[in-house]
Amino acid sequence: MKLRRSRASKRGRIEIIPMIDVMFFLLATFMLASLAMQRLDAVRIDLPQGAAQPLAEQQPLTLGISHSGQIQVNRQNVQLSEVAGTVKRLLPSDGNVVVAADAGAPNGLVVQAMLQARQGGAGHFLIALQRDNP
User: Fold this and answer.
1) Looking at the DSSP assignment, which residues form a beta bridge with residue 99?
2) Structural domains of the chain sorted by starting position, each given as residue range(s) with its CATH number in brackets
3) Does position 125 have pLDDT exceeding 60, yes or no?
4) Gap between the Cα atoms of 47 and 123, Å rounded
5) What are phi and psi of 48, to 5 degrees?
6) Which of 32, 65, 95, 118 is most open to solvent, judged by the fewest CB atoms within 10 Å of its CB?
7) pLDDT(50) > 70
8) Which ranges of the chain does DSSP label H, i.e. alpha helix?
9) Model confidence over 58-74: pLDDT tens digits?
């Protein structure tokens, strides 16, 4: 008497199309995530050298002055006359403003921008420095 198998053995197949879909999804995700980490709208500022304590995790308001005299408040281009109103609108509760002025920025413009920020409610100014490499 011959015994019959209850099931015919089928050879397994590897489906590659779903794997390709997953790989393209991961590729697109990593590309978008890496683009989100770039600061493409920032102005290049050459900060002066120095040693300072790192800031806490919260992000204070940033007042940036470039070498050419361009003023930014939290990466938004503003005129000198608009600094007070913009600072008043965006100032966090602690009142800290980080001044990130280029080393070649005109000192008079930096002081005028800081005075305008003071009129907008800034209580304390922190000067941004580029760390020295020991």
Assistant:
1) 63, 127
2) 49-131 (3.30.420)
3) yes
4) 22
5) -70, 155
6) 32
7) yes
8) 17-36, 83-90, 107-119
9) 677 888 998 888 898 88
For residue 3, give the amino acid letter. Answer: L
Question: In sequence order, what are the residues at sequence separation of 6 or more whose Cβ sits closer than 8 angstroms to the Cβ of residue 44?
Answer: 66
Looking at the whole model, is its pTM more than 0.70? Answer: no
Exposure b/e, 101-120, CB count within 10 A at least 16 = b: bbeebeeebbeebbebbeeb
* Mean pLDDT of all residues belonging to the chain: 81
> CA separation (Å) from 133 to 50, 55, 130?
10, 18, 9
Cβ atoms of 58 and 79 within 8 Å: the answer is: no
Phi/psi at 78 (5° precision): -135, 160
C-alpha–C-alpha distance, residues 75 and 49, integer Å: 22
At residue 51, does pLDDT exceed 90? no
**What is the structure's pLDDT at 42?**
60
Residue written as token pair 């209580």: 123
Structure tokens at 83: 């600094």
Token code pair at residue 30:
């990593």
pLDDT higher than threshold 70 for residue 40? no
User: Do 99 and 127 touch, CB atoms closer than 8 A?
Assistant: yes
